[in-house]
Design brief:
Elements: E1 4-8, H1 13-24, E2 28-33, H2 40-47, E3 53-57, H3 63-73, E4 78-81, H4 88-93, H5 95-116, E5 121-127, E6 139-142, E7 145-148, H6 165-185, E8 188-194, E9 196-198, H7 210-220, E10 225-227, E11 233-238, H8 239-252, E12 258-261, E13 268-270, H9 271-282, E14 289-291, E15 300-301, H10 306-312, H11 320-333, H12 335-343
Parallel strand pairs: 1-2, 1-4, 2-3, 4-5, 5-8, 8-12, 9-11, 10-14, 11-15
Antiparallel strand pairs: 6-7, 11-13
Helix pairs in contact: 1-2, 3-5, 5-6, 7-9, 7-11, 9-11
Length: 344
């Protein structure tokens, strides 16, 4: 019997890849999205061409929209909850909207799952921002980029939670709700604390999706800024590697588990290193301006993925060079569509 999945935020960057991935794996996928994100309409239309994919326009802030979606699907075997307000800067400007989408929207999705599909696997896309600014970890400069002085493997799930910014608070509260629904209601839920996810079909902007944004700006010749000194480090995780972790959670994960999902120490990259890499790929210098540090911008973050490796056998496979080449090729091939999305 064909398994069925609902993907909230299914027309977003990760959602699009998830829908394609699971449809090709034989699932019947229902994409649920309000199309508020730039570029989501392009992904939504593209998904309409695929077999095994249905599309519903709806909002996670609406209990009625979610109930109708679950009733339309019928027997639901898995829910990927990817719908979110995704930018820290936007959360500071409009914290009520951020809370409504991230915290209240997650609560609504959990409740819809509990009522209509209590046996389904529920995977929540959380964030490394739940660990806060990590000011208690000493940072040093090594080889022209920032690094932890005392965390050679990166930040593990044992790191205390410390929500910073409205975005950190809304995603962090949702993170804990998802965990607790396993303990209190027996929901088969999983929390995946994602680091810097990148890949094709990502219509990045300056304050979110920074790898895609720099690739788009480099290819299209758009003005861009580096905030701070450019030595800030993140661990980059190719989107298909993330989906492999979702697979592992659904197929063999222990309900209530929490996993970090980043590129790890082997896939660290500073902003300046990314810009140089793009210049090498394009065969020309990539221009940018330097600007002041933004509040709360961590100098370094990378994930310790040992828990997911040990419990699920999951490890990133796609290296930074390979991933950035693939992303840049996609931007070049879809430059007109990207320009149209930016103008919409």
């Amino acid at each position: 019997m064909q398994r069925k999945m609902i993907v909230t935020g299914g027309a977003g960057f990760i959602g699009y890849h998830a829908a394609v991935h699971y449809a090709r794996a034989g699932w019947h996928v229902t994409v649920f999205d309000d199309l508020s994100r730039r570029g989501s309409g392009i992904n939504f239309d593209a998904l309409g061409e695929l077999p095994n994919v249905d599309r519903i326009r709806g909002d996670v802030r609406s209990r009625d929209d979610l109930a109708k979606a679950f009733r339309a699907v019928g027997e639901v075997d898995a829910v990927l909850h990817l719908a979110a307000q995704v930018a820290v800067t936007t959360s500071v400007v409009d914290p009520r909207h951020d809370f409504d989408v991230n915290a209240f929207g997650t609560f609504n999705t959990l409740e819809a799952t509990r009522e209509h599909a209590p046996g389904a696997s529920f995977v929540y896309a959380s964030t490394n921002k739940v660990y806060g600014g990590l000011e208690h970890h000493h940072v040093v400069e090594r080889d022209g980029r920032w690094d932890f002085a005392d965390l050679s493997l990166g930040v593990s799930e044992a790191e205390p939670l410390d929500f910073h910014s409205p975005y950190g608070c809304s995603k962090g509260s949702a993170d804990q709700y998802v965990r607790d629904y396993s303990r209190i209601y027996g929901l088969r839920s999983f929390v995946v604390r994602q680091s810097c996810i990148y890949g094709t079909h990502q219509f990045g902007v300056e304050d979110q999706g920074w790898v895609a944004w720099f690739a788009i700006a480099a290819v299209l010749g758009l003005p861009t800024s580096i905030y701070g000194d450019g030595k800030q480090v993140r661990d980059l995780l190719w989107v298909e590697d993330l989906l492999a972790l979702y697979d592992a959670c659904i197929e063999r994960g222990e309900p209530g588990a929490i996993y970090n999902a980043g590129g790890g120490p082997g896939n660290r990259c500073s902003i300046l290193e990314l810009v140089d890499m793009l210049g090498d790929i394009l065969g020309r210098d990539v221009s940018y301006e330097m600007s002041d540090w933004r509040p709360g911008d961590q100098r370094v973050f990378y994930s310790d993925n040992a828990k997911a490796a040990g419990e699920l056998g999951w490890r990133p496979c796609v290296g930074v060079q390979e991933g950035v080449h693939q992303l840049t090729s996609w931007v070049r091939e879809n430059a007109d569509a990207i320009r149209a999305a930016r103008a919409s």
